[in-house]
Amino acid sequence: MSKVEIFEKERASNYNQFVEDWIPNYSYFMEKLPKLLSDTDNKDLLVVGCGTGNEIVQFAKADQDWKITGVDPSPEMINQAKERLAKHENIKLIEGLVSDLSQDRKYGAVTLLLVLHFLEDNGQKLDLLRQIAQRLKTEAPLVMLDITGDQKQMKTNLKVLKQLLPNNLDKDLLQNRLQRIENDLHYVPEERLMELCQEASFERPIRFFQTSIYMGWITWKK
Fold first, then answer.
1. Structural domains of the chain, with CATH
2. pTM value > 0.70
3. How many whole angstroms from its chain centre is CA 174?
């Protein structure tokens, strides 16, 4: 049984400000997501770990007919997303896991942003990637964004990240967060992520984005 990271209380209510503060160029990445997937023929999009709906908002604004399903295990995050996206009829939000979704429906594209580093590399990461692959059409794109690197790389990139963070962050909270990233999260080297994706029936991912510890890739279902 996979351990699932569920955002509740302050972690849920402060999430949007948190990602803006802690991920340099986060807004740029989000704004470009719909363009990155604009050539996708099948506009049936699955958003895994949709949280408060940040990427869904971008696709909802895009000048394309996306049909979007967002799934997240946190009731508080899903409730926030429902409030933000209530006026959109083409969006369905589900409190749960990818494994709860029927395999009969095959999606045309999927996003997996800031999720994998919460899962241990003891079969949990691979299981999620396989669960996603089982619900995708052949050649459907998968876009990922995650904290990535080996231990040496993480130490170096965390120093860079610290220089890029807003000046008004509480110093104690900042230091605690940096230590949590380095010691408590389950990041893996980029090459290991490549292996996991290929084992889960995806092509070898292409990295198209990096800002300090955060890397973004695109791959396709075999």
1. 9-220 (3.40.50.150)
2. yes
3. 22
C-beta atoms surrounding 136 within 10 Å: 23
Phi, psi (rounded to 5 degrees) for 65: -90, 70
Q: Give 74's contacts (C-beta < 8 A, 6+ positions apart).
A: 6, 7, 8, 12, 51, 95
How confident is the model at residue 2, as a pLDDT? 46
Q: How many CB atoms within 10 Å of residue 17?
A: 9
Which residues in the chain come in under a pLDDT of 70?
Answer: 1-13, 15
* pLDDT tens digits along 49-93: 999 999 999 999 998 899 999 999 999 999 999 999 999 999 999
